[in-house]
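Q: Convert this sequence to structure tokens.
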Amino acid sequence: MSSLSIWHWLIILFVFSTYIVPVWRIISKAGYSGAWSLITFIPVLNFIMLWVFAFSRWPNEPK
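A:
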């Protein structure tokens, strides 16, 4: 099996960017660091992160 061509890498980059950019912006608007969106690529941790963010108090949420 040969290595991936430039077209494969461009498709992978396109798919990752169309997924990571909206998640980064949502997490940033919630008041967290956008770097948390990189956890979405880790298979089991992404579901745990989703539940933690769903049920925790967001930093920019009114008290």
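DSSP finds two helices and no strands in the chain.
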